[in-house]
Amino acid sequence: MIVGRQRVAGWGKSVVDMLAADLQKNFPGIEGFSPRNIWRMRAFYLAWARDEPQPTFLPQAVAEIPWGHNVTLLEKLKDSAQRIWYARQATVNGWSRSMLDHWIESDLYSRQGSAVTNFKQALPPPQSDLASEIVRDPYNFDFLMLRDRAAERELEDGLLTHIRKFLIELGAGFVQAGICR
Fold it and tell me: Is 166 helix (H, G, I), strand (E, B) or coil?
């Protein structure tokens, strides 16, 4: 309704503040109707309505994640394909919002499955696709704070010191692949 009225009737920005105040007055004790959150709801509508008069169904992955996750996707990503990919990964891997933030900031989408391998030639399609998904290039070890040309021993010491961050960087697929052997 807000988007339609802004387009047709020329509603301005102040209408959201008035709407938020009216909702809070008429529904005391119910949270989630701050002006900021109403702007987020508007952005959510615009992200998935695709300028259709009657919006289609939401992508399943987007519908399955909590509102806070959707807010993170809307505020940090412009590309809808990336939003859907991260939403799907959040559902499959059970990511918290802080984990979703971490993976977006480390650009997992661009790194996922980009390592040079021979999986397509050596494995049949279902297995080669799975193997490609769990291999990323490059891994992001910036948290180790090593110089450009570090010795192997420095890398080993750094990984042992930061084992939790290292395991998070490897991701769930890496651990699952190791268990299945």
Answer: helix
